[in-house]
Amino acid sequence: MNATQHHDAGHGQHGAHGHHGHHAPAGPAGLDSSEDGYTLALETTAAPAGAETELRFRLLGNDGRPVTGLTPIHDKLVHLIVVRRDLTRYVHVHPAEAADGTWSVRVLLPEAGAYRVFADFAPAALGRTLTLGADLTAGDGAGPAHELPAPAPAFTVDGREVTLTGELAAGEGRRLEFAVARDGEPVTDLQPYLAAYGHLVAVRREDLAYVHVHPDGSPGDGTTGPGPVVAFHAQVPGPGTYRLFLDFKHEDAVRTAEFTAVVR
Predict the structure, then answer these.
(1) Structure pTM?
(2) Bridge-partner residues for 229, per DSSP?
(3) Alpha-carbon gap, residue 102 to 40, rounded angstroms
(4) What is the pLDDT of residues 160-212, one digit of tens each?
(5) Domains and CATH numbers, the chain
(6) 100-123 pLDDT, tens per residue?
(7) Sign of CA dihedral 86, 18, 232, 213
(8) Got the DSSP string for 185-227?
């Protein structure tokens, strides 16, 4: 029941922990639509299921006006993540801004149900990344809830087998390694995607707390190779069941490997 979607339009972790400065939020990220005077205001709160639609929103400051002066995060001013609340659907897109401060991007939500929208952006005046969340309904909102797959060490997508080594721990930074192979052979020609060989999003099932992590090293730094392993230093805010979404690019297509992790 998994579906992913990608649009192409500093390293570290954002969401629960900012990476553009030291004034990081104290609690889990993505739980609120407003924080530190900034607000994610969805103009599109309902969308059809199974048909592409335009998702529109604004990022507002405490004066109610559109935020200006955003710092790029891995080549983009805004990263937009959309997940079904049961974490069986995942979309990672990058919206464009209109002259009036409205952001928009076309998305396809393949199944009716309740979704959560996360916006990652870094106001220059704040000095760190914010993750704000808001609710979105697809179709009649009444689609069935699906159980998450049980934890497993490997996931296959488009013939690429991705193997996870390492475990998350509540409130502790842990190293996670994702090794990519095809037909039993290591993949050593991953392509840069948004200035990195991989991007990792973790969302907690119980409350949709959100973490977005960028990998160790970067393309062209002289030490980081294009596979087979993409490594991250990740920290989750507490116990729970998390769904991990690893985006990576190979042979000119962005693919997503998904894992379930139970943190005690």
Answers:
(1) 0.90
(2) 179
(3) 11
(4) 999 999 999 998 999 999 999 999 999 999 999 999 999 999 999 999 999 99
(5) 3-138 (2.60.40.1930), 154-263 (2.60.40.10)
(6) 999 999 999 999 999 999 999 999
(7) positive
(8) EE----B-SSSSS-EEEEEETTT--EEEEPPSS-TTSSS--SS
